[in-house]
Amino acid sequence: MVVMVTDRRRLAEGDVEQCERVIDVAARAARAGVDLIQIREPDLPDRALERLVRGAVGASAATAARIVVNDRTDVALAAGAGGVHLPAASAAARRVRSMVPPGFVIGRSVHSTADAVAADDEEACDYLLFGTVFPTRSKPPGHPVAGLDALRRVCQSVRIPVVAIGGITRERLADVAAAGAAGIAAIGMFADAAGTTRADDGLDRIVQEVRRAFDRRSGCLAGC
Asked: What is the pTM of this model?
């Protein structure tokens, strides 16, 4: 599974009010073959967030990519997104499942084996997002880093796909795959590629490299 997580501060070169660039990058990533695009812009006002999600949904409509919205099930449903990603302390996945249509994707962030097992036991999530695996610019200095051993324990403890996040680079893909993850999620790796003069080529290469590293691992969503 290949998941791009948005951060307009990085994708829009520091302009925190600019969402058109995020939609453009989402469209490029969708065409490159990512499975999920997680819209994670927690400080956007509701109307602006809904406009952004609608734009991303429209821009990716001709692809297999699905748009999931961080934490906001209401916005995801209103904007026609394909799913929601629940932070660790968010609503119970089972409750969300009761409110959404069939096929709606539900993901959950987890930070420990106990969290992962509890989410697995709930039987309402399609995937788990585990991290932070490696140090990353997206978290402040001193933020806890789980490491590969913790990722491996989580993958061995649950039945549903586990996606690794946090400091994921091309050089680390093989190690993450060997730990048992079903895929990766990243902000920086995609943001850096989208900022190049040949953004489409860069995004294509990233997706291809992830696919090769994970060797079409069973358990992925969206045909990954």
From this structure: 0.91
